[in-house]
Amino acid sequence: MQTVSAVGIDGTNLSLATVQSVACERLRVELTDKARAAMRASRDVVEQAVAADGQVYGVTTGFGRLKNVRIAPAEAAQLQRNLILSHCAGVGEPLSHAAARAAMLLRAHSLARGYSGVRIELVQLLIDMLNAGLAAVIPSKGSVGCSGDLAPLAHMALTLLGEGEVLSGGARMPASQALQSAGLRPMRLSYKEGISLINGTQIMTAIGGLALLAARSALKALDIAGAMSLEAFLGSDAPFAERINALRPYRGQARSASNLRHLLAGSEVMASHRDCDRVQDPYSFRCMPVVHGAARDTLNYAESVLEIEINAVTDNPIVFADDGALVSNGNFHGGPVGLALDYAAIALTDASSICERRCYKLLEGLEALPPFLSERFGMCSGYMLAQYTAAALVSENKTLAVPASTDSIPTSAGQEDHNSMGTISARQCAAVVENFQTVVAIELLEAAQALDFRAPLRYGRGTAIAHRVVRERVPHLDDDRNLSTDIEAAVELVRSGALVTAVEDEMGSL
Q: Are residues 274 and 162 in the same domain?
């Protein structure tokens, strides 16, 4: 397969996977000729409007409640700088390096569509910063999700002026120093450029998009961990039969059921108890295709929303070069993104809950497994406290899954009277994903330990691979030790995708 060395952006052609490649793997970014032509045309409209002394929101007027305050053309450029400075009101821990770079890419991409009226040089500077490995230091809190992610995007925009801070090579430094080291010069903003830099949903979309990609991999790991747990628990794979799941034809359910069947194929452990007298397994085992599958379907929906959003125009006003119109609008409202990410957080919370229940069942001392999976139970506590940690994370997820999009607090003296809180939804969803990854990792540890007690019977085709991968990093727990170290190693298997990659390399895509 040919390796792509760069991506050309035009405002219409990004995928979430490409965003991740730029944000995390430093795929280079280029501005296409199509984008340059569209940007020139929309810039001409803005300059003509300023020259004609027209009343254009955010260009020759103030902002928000100050929309009726006229600004003289001679002061229009200073207005844009003042806007950025005044809106740098973010607080909290900075966005991750990857999320900040994703936001920078997405803002450049949206401006490149040619409906914002900014100069090509402005977008080019954002691209040059990305290609130099820079990431703006952006406080994570302060956005109400309208008129876009104003405060955090203002902190991003500030770095283009040579102010604020950036991350470069893992070090935090003044933007002026980082730009100079990269051979770049800061910009002096012109008409409409300040408002175009901050009117958009790129912070919530960057955080949410990266979180959904991480969740996609973790859901595959969930199927792997669930299959290992069922095998070790001497459960039945009968509920995973294709003909059963075809009667309730959700795509996610069918995929999870198929995964479970293939992961368990060839298992001597499963064959050893085919004729046992257990009638049914607990729901956390029997309902895996349904619950895991519903989370997959929800994630598919959320990803489809964000794939639209990353290629959307969310500026205000929007510039139409074909007829010279500058139109005030509400495309900056983060409602679609916030609702989708709240939905994803709810689904992943449910997935983390069923995962924790299997962790609990493996520790009960049933089906010839020792209590807490320790052959020295009593003297040793085994995995007792690992389940406590899983329970705590699931409980936290239940709090984080309360939808932020159901709230709205008016701003700008009532002019902005219905806000999306979509960036809070994104941050909560990202936190849910992080907890979910850890709960799955704990199930992996317990399931691998439980399978150890089924030797020398052969494991399933996929579960054997997963068991080997876990054991390459974490040994059998034969005596109590610092479990946090083991959990950390298992989390890295999930978070890096190493577990899923190892299984898919031998079995195909899950």
A: no
Give CA–CA dist 488/61, Å, rounded: 53
End-of-domain residue from the set 180, 200, 220:
200
Task: List, for residues 409-447, the tens digit of each pLDDT value.
Answer: 999 888 889 999 999 999 999 999 999 999 999 999 999
- Residues 298, 159 within the same domain: no
Same domain membership, residue 218 and residue 196: no
Exactly one of 57, 191, 343, 383 is catalytic; name it.
57
**Single-letter residue type at 128:** D
pLDDT digit string (tens) for 147-179?
889 999 999 999 999 999 999 988 999 999 999
In a shared domain, residues 69 and 217: no
Task: For the beta carbon of residue 34, count every other beta carbon within 10 angstroms.
Answer: 17
Using alpha carbons, select from 117, 92, 104 the residue that is nearest to residue 41: 117
User: Which tens digit of pLDDT belongs to each residue from 366-379?
Assistant: 999 999 999 999 99
CB atoms closer than 10 angstroms to residue 469: 20
3-state secondary structure of 465: helix
Residue 258: the pLDDT is 98
Q: Which of 236, 355, 335 is nearest to 291 (CA)?
A: 355
User: 377 and 282, same structural domain?
Assistant: yes
> What pTM, to 2 d.p., does this model score?
0.96
SS3 222: helix
Q: What percent of the chain has pLDDT over 70?
A: 98
Residue 413 pLDDT: 85
- 383 carries an active-site annotation: no
* C-alpha of 192 from chain center: 30
Whether 87 maps to a domain, the answer reads yes
Of residues 335, 341, 321, 319, the one with CA closest to residue 432 = 341
Q: 501: domain CATH number?
A: 1.20.200.10
Domain interval for residue 52: 6-200
Strands 28-31, 6-9: pairing kind? parallel
